[in-house]
């Protein structure tokens, strides 16, 4: 039998198929959660006294700690041997086969973002770890508890989660999997509603997937949210994106918005005037970019008379590549 613990969202302990009862008192439940998050290393009793009963005289605080540990041991039942108490310290020791969701989430994040892996090309294994980490984060850590140490760890894990979602959006854009990118973009906006960049990402993806009215509605959602929460307006870049999508919807014109070759292209940087014309040439360059994303790099020569728009065409491709998360290098020579 193994112990399984979830702290992301619902706070539960299970032993095999049996759900264990949480400790009877709030302090004992919080103490158990603290020991779990810091498992397998002894925590000095003085630290626990100062953290959980700072206002009590030492003798009363020690009595309260002993009482809380008794409640924890009783609630653990067959897993009570995981709680190890010494005269000077306390530890919760997970056994091989035990599982803690927050622990696995932290481990996955550390593996994904380790200095040796951070700048390597995306592998199937790395993408799988990103997806597993996102699936583990069902909700914030220890919802309903607002002690300082809980808030600190909650925000730390939540920031990890936001980074993972952003990485998954980039992964699926690079693969041309825009529906999947949209799913994670929606989760990012739900997790951090005031992140304006995430709303812009949603608008671009909605447009790319043939849902321009949803993109415009997303702008209105953001505008109301900023007004209600911050008494602020969307930034000029977000408003420019809205205006360009609205103009494209009304005029059926081809401004600089995502176009869909086979495989699909990437949205470029919208902080400039609409790019008109050269559609076939741009599609050919986007095909080469998609091939590079699939591991088949190549060289492309763009040639023509002076003033026909070669530099602008290449700039559009660079913007498309940046939106997908590629690193773009630019060199010039005469």
Secondary-structure-based class equals alpha+beta
Number of helices: 12
Q: CA-to-CA gap between the ends?
A: 72 Å
Radius of gyration: 26 Å
Strand share of the residues? Answer: 5-15%
Q: Going across the biggest sheet, name each strand in turn.
A: 3-2-1-7
Would you identify the regions where 5 or more consecutive residues have pLDDT less than 50?
264-272
* SSE pattern, N- to C-terminal: EEEHEHHEEEHHHHHHHHH
Oligomer designation: single chain
Give structural notes.
The chain starts with a strand and ends in an 11-residue tail after the last helix. A hairpin with a 2-residue loop joins strand 2 (12-15) and strand 3. Helix content is 54%, strand content 7%. It has twelve helices and seven strands. The strands form two sheets. A four-stranded mixed sheet has the order 3-2-1-7. It has a three-stranded antiparallel sheet with strand order 4-6-5. It has helices at 26-37, 45-52, 58-76, 101-112, 124-136, 148-174, 178-191, 196-208, 212-230, 236-251, 279-293, 310-323; strands spanning 3-6, 12-15, 18-20, 43-44, 83-85, 89-92, 99-100. It is α+β, with helices and mostly antiparallel strands and 334 residues long.
